[in-house]
Amino acid sequence: FYLPGIRLAPKEEMDIPVLFMPDTMKMYEAVVVIHVMRENGENWPYEDSAELNKDLKSSVTVAENGGIQGILWIYPVHGIPEAPPQKLVPAVVRCRARQRVERRVEVLLTGVVPGATAMPAARNSATVNTNKPANIQEEVQVTDGFFTTVGFLYELQYQSNEIKSQLESLVGMHLVQRERDTESGIVTLIFNIVFAPNKPMRNEATLVVRCTTGGVWKFPMLFIATEPEVDDVINIEAVGLNKESIVGFKLTSQTR
């Protein structure tokens, strides 16, 4: 759009509205250009206008008499669509403290292909598959050459830096398989999640998937670490009434 004839006083501020309404899950690019000229039509004097450096030539318009007629500000804008929030059931990864578990998490990405925006009601959330073996060597499937041009980036985001510091070293994740339904265009990503908690906890996280062509999808996750197994049972036998009984045992620290 074009906004002509806006007057600005010295040091006055102006808001520029930018509206973004994507219809497909891809990144859109635009440029906001602001052209400023003096209200009286005069030029700004500039002695060496013929020898303007390359960077300055792209941001000014020079008049025939050598003065600066206008000044340009150019702001690139990237529009990245995000999938609408849905009330998804969190994918739960549960493990006893001081143990290790591997789970498969399956997520569905709609709108990766233009026109594929409907999501089946039966598979509208991130799900944890506990039946498949945790074979992390499984090859990534490629369908119809689609994945030769489309890639995905992913990360786990946490509600706070404190939760991040607790979970970051305890959770491992990588993409093991991706498929695309040729009819619906829905892309299925399967992740292998490794969770090795060192103490009981219950923390939420968000799996964020970004498509290299643009588009962001978010899926809730819940990591639960239950009480660990009992290490040992200590029996103390009494030697008599009102007499102390002592049992010694060793504790070894797992850290420095």
UniProtKB/TrEMBL annotation:
Domain CFAP47-like immunoglobulin-like: 82-226
Secretion signal, residue range per the UniProt entry: none
One cellular-component annotation, GO: cilium
InterPro entries given in the database record: Ig_CFAP47
A Pfam cross-reference name: Ig_CFAP47
Domain of life: Eukaryota
A biological-process GO annotation: sperm axoneme assembly
Name used for this protein in its record: CFA47 protein
Source organism per UniProt: Circaetus pectoralis (black-chested snake-eagle)
